[in-house]
From TrEMBL:
Residues 5-59 form the HTH lacI-type domain. It comes from Microbacterium imperiale. SUPFAM superfamilies: lambda repressor-like DNA-binding domains (SSF47413), Periplasmic binding protein-like I (SSF53822). The keyword Transcription applies. The keyword Transcription regulation applies. It holds the Pfam family LacI. PANTHER family: LACI-RELATED TRANSCRIPTIONAL REPRESSOR (PTHR30146), LACTOSE OPERON REPRESSOR (PTHR30146:SF153). This is HTH lacI-type domain-containing protein. Keywords: DNA-binding, Transcription, Transcription regulation. InterPro entries: HTH_LacI, Lambda_DNA-bd_dom_sf, Peripla_BP_I. One of its GO terms (molecular function) is DNA-binding transcription factor activity.
Amino acid sequence: MTRQVTLKDIALRAGVSTAAISQALNDRGSLRPETRERIKAIAAELGYQPNKYAAALRSGRTMSVGFVLPESVELDLSRRSALHRSRHIGALVSAAAEQGFTVTMLPASRPDLLRGAQIDVVYFAEVAADDLLLREAVARGIPVATNDLYVDTERSITVRTGYDEAVRAALGLLEAGGAERIGFLVDDAGAPRDRIGESAYRAWSTVRGRTPLVAHVDAEHGALPRRVGELRDAGADAIFSFAEEGPAIYLQLEEMDFVIPRDMQFVALCTTDCAVNTRLGVTHVCVHPELAPAAMFQALSTVRDGVEPDIVDLPWEIVRGSSTR
């Protein structure tokens, strides 16, 4: 096993103190530029790799992020929710590994676990304002990162995933295409992202003086044809499907010989199946919640210093298909 190169090894080769080595590698102190560059060159030659964990201990950091599992996880066993959680956890683990962090799972029902937890930030992918673990973290001064919920404290990061902006953009696209009564398909599980989407749709409808046409779809989409039929019977001339994913819904209706009428415009929310949507000709609005963990880590250094709350907006885009005219 190869021994790790230390500051002392570099100091012996360079003929200076370990303090000078530290100053050079961290771009601090008043060393002459040529001395600083010579030390860096020797460090590179020896294959020196800084110990992130030792540096973290010196700065009071733990290099660990806590991921909060909502209380609803045990009750919500739908395929869609399970996929959403697994994708988000996978994205968090990957982003954490890039930064040298580990991930600790925290059940939302156990705020007491924060008393002895060694965590740099608590991350909430889905959270309500009255969440007890969120309140406990804020009270203890632990930095928190939340998706789509603003927390009014200096040590917080709000990641706006773009669900509400995507809804307004999709509805605007359908309206521009001539739709006068837009139906809204949404899952009935009551996940925060679904509440955001439905609230955005209802607000958009109210501003325009339109009567909302909302159809809630069960987790397995068994009632999907009936719900689409109800929207059609209620006079909907367009549908925005917030019940992910567009291809699954479109193909399921096709398999049941219930193809969405060609005179009805259709736009789908998309988080993963953009290529399939495009191949099917389904116009879709793409959001990227999987980018939230990386965005959180980018903002973490500022928030850890307690400068001010940080707000990060994730990208989203509309991709036109052949089904919206």
